[in-house]
Every structure is written in structure tokens, then in C-alpha cells.
Write a structure and sequence with these properties.
Length: 185
């Protein structure tokens, strides 16, 4: 008999441990890139949000449960990294948008090239407006509607330009380390 067919999968692979670990490493790596390298590439003080693009990509590829977990963990990491932010605000927004992006994939064309770009763009608009709204509700200082719209437009532009590069990498990682494929090399 063929050795590959008789080999029992690793228990960690069956539980999805390697998948969870690969997602966690991807989130931490995206946050590290965003807070170091991409922090130097700003226009009007707006930093490209590669962590957000990774979260939406993961949610779009793997569904709402992965989107909720990744959104919460990634948002919480970003909240803890920022000193002038209300802790939990990004976690809440990213959690909700992770769920929305994961739910949206059921209605999207299967192999559409443009759909992930549109999903990230739409989620970016909602995230920026939601963050501004929740900041106002929580009593934080607000500059103006025109400034908020300019920042939101720049974030959408950045995230939309990042998506064609980030989405295929995230897809490759999730395909490589999905629980049913981990033990089949």
C-alpha cells in the first residue's frame, strides 16, 4: 500500500492547531508590518491598514467564525498597540466587519477577482465611519466631518491598493494550512 494513504494524520492537524497558529502568525506579522514599515509610508498621517486587509481577507476566505475570531484578536492587538485609543474599539469594529465579510462570501461569485477588492473597500468605509462614530459616542475629541471623510477616503485607497497583493498571500496560507490539507503534502 501507498505510505501516504496509510499514514494517520497528526492529531494537531486534525484539531486545526497548525491552521490556528498560521492565522495567528499572519495577524502578528501584519500588525508588525503595519506598525513599523507601513507607519513610515503615510499621507496626511494615514497609515495603510494591512492588518485590516488581512482580517477581511481571512473572513472572506474562511467564513464568519474565522472572521469574528480574527477580527477580535487583530483589533485587540491593534488597540493595545495604540496609546491614544479606547481599548476594545478596534476589536469591536473588526469583529463585526469580520463577521460581515465572512457572511458576504456566501453571496459572492466563487472565483471573482474583483470581489475581495470591493469587500475590503466597503469594509474600510464602514470601519472608518464606525470608528469615528464610536469615538464621538465615547466622548473623544472629533475634528470635523470633512477631515474624517478625507481620512476614510485615504484608508479606502490604501486598503484597496493593498488587497491585490495581500489577498493572494492570505489565500495561499489558508490553503496550505487548512485542517484537511495540513497532513497531505
Amino acid at each position: 500500500m501507498d505510505a501516504a494513504k496509510t499514514r494517520r494524520p497528526n492529531i494537531l492537524a486534525e484539531l486545526g492547531f497548525t491552521h490556528g497558529l498560521s492565522v495567528a502568525v499572519t495577524l502578528v506579522f501584519a500588525l508588525a508590518l503595519q506598525s513599523t514599515l507601513f507607519a513610515r509610508i503615510t499621507i496626511l498621517g494615514v497609515i495603510p491598514q494591512i492588518l485590516f486587509v488581512v482580517i477581511v481577507s481571512l473572513a472572506y476566505l474562511q467564513g464568519e467564525r474565522v472572521g469574528v475570531v480574527c477580527g477580535f484578536l487583530g483589533g485587540l492587538l491593534q488597540d493595545l498597540l495604540l496609546t491614544d485609543s479606547i481599548v476594545g474599539l478596534y476589536a469591536l469594529i473588526y469583529l463585526l466587519l469580520g463577521f460581515a465579510a465572512g457572511s458576504f462570501r456566501k453571496y459572492a461569485p466563487a472565483e471573482s477577482i474583483w470581489m475581495p477588492v470591493f469587500v475590503v473597500a466597503g469594509a474600510s468605509i464602514v470601519a472608518e465611519m464606525g470608528y469615528a462614530t464610536l469615538n464621538i459616542i465615547m466622548g473623544q475629541r472629533w475634528v470635523s466631518l470633512t477631515f474624517t471623510l478625507k481620512v476614510a477616503a485615504l484608508v479606502v485607497l490604501y486598503n484597496t491598493l493593498l488587497t491585490p497583493f495581500v489577498f493572494p498571500l492570505v489565500r495561499r496560507i489558508t490553503d496550505r494550512f487548512s485542517p484537511e490539507k495540513v497532513y497531505r503534502w
